[in-house]
Amino acid sequence: MKSSPQSTPSTHPNTGADPEPAKRPIGVFDSGIGGLSILKALRAELPHEDFVYVADSGHAPYGERDDAHVIDRSSAITAHLLAQYRIQALVIACNTATAAAISTLRLAHPLLPIVGVEPALKPALALSKTGRIGVMATRGTLGSAKFRTLVASLAEQATFICQPCDGLADAIERQDTTKTVALCAYYTRAIGRFGINEGEIDTLVLGCTHYPFACATLRQLVGPSVQLIDTGEAVARQTRRLLPSPSEAGTPGTCRLLSTGDPRALRHAAQHWLGLDDPVDSLLL
Ligand code: DGL
Hints:
By secondary structure, the chain is of the alpha/beta class. It folds into two domains: 21-117 and 233-282, 3-Layer(aba) Sandwich (Rossmann fold); 121-230, Rossmann fold, CATH 3.40.50. It has helices at residues 36-45, 67-85, 95-108, 121-127, 139-143, 145-154, 168-173, 177-191, 215-222, 232-242, 263-274, and strands at residues 26-30, 51-55, 89-92, 114-115, 132-137, 159-164, 203-206, 227-229, 255-259, 280-282. The strands form two sheets. A six-stranded parallel beta sheet has the order 4-3-1-2-9-10, sandwiched between helices. Strands 6-5-7-8 form a four-stranded parallel beta sheet, sandwiched between helices. Bound molecules: D-glutamic acid.
């Protein structure tokens, strides 16, 4: 099935007036299924809002591509969500796209509330007792000016051991469990010794929205005492703060799911992780 514009009219049929801003959906995108970890938190925080989710699986992974590719894709997706769905806000549910493209998107769409995702170093710092914090993220995120500035601003307060995890988002995207487990084992070993004693890493930041889907594997590898930090709930709270008037009651919100790649991957992940039975439409973009 191909994506088509929303069937609801964009203006009131009699008056021609704009619909209530709160009736417009919130756009959410990621390079693939990873942003579902953010969508899950958004739906819990804003159960009466409608969402349109784009998985850019046809152009993934973002994390090992150059900035120009990620900026082009983020711009095309945002323009599509605005033109076809008249989104009231945008959530960039991807650390890599946030680092590469959020300033471009904000410049291009100054009236659109835009929320991004970045590795949760500050919350990790607040929780860590040993002052040794592991950070797993894509090469793109860790190499970005935005991330370097963030680490530099906190460098005196803790030691951050940053590990680019090539291939991990892709393995999770393909739902390749064997490879996911092998890569998680390899990268956690590379980060160092985990635990709560002095000199050990007691906090691990999941700096890519795909990684929470490997949480059970990571938990087994690092042990029960280490804190795993992701950003879903914080992003959802920030989205609520930026909405002009969040819907607080009424019918439960809907989710429209779109994929530029194989729709079956998104459908399976949305069913498995969010219990969503909605069909996934193919998006040619
Ligand atoms: N989920 C994306 C992130 O948070 C990246 C995955 C990819 O490399 O495409 O960075």
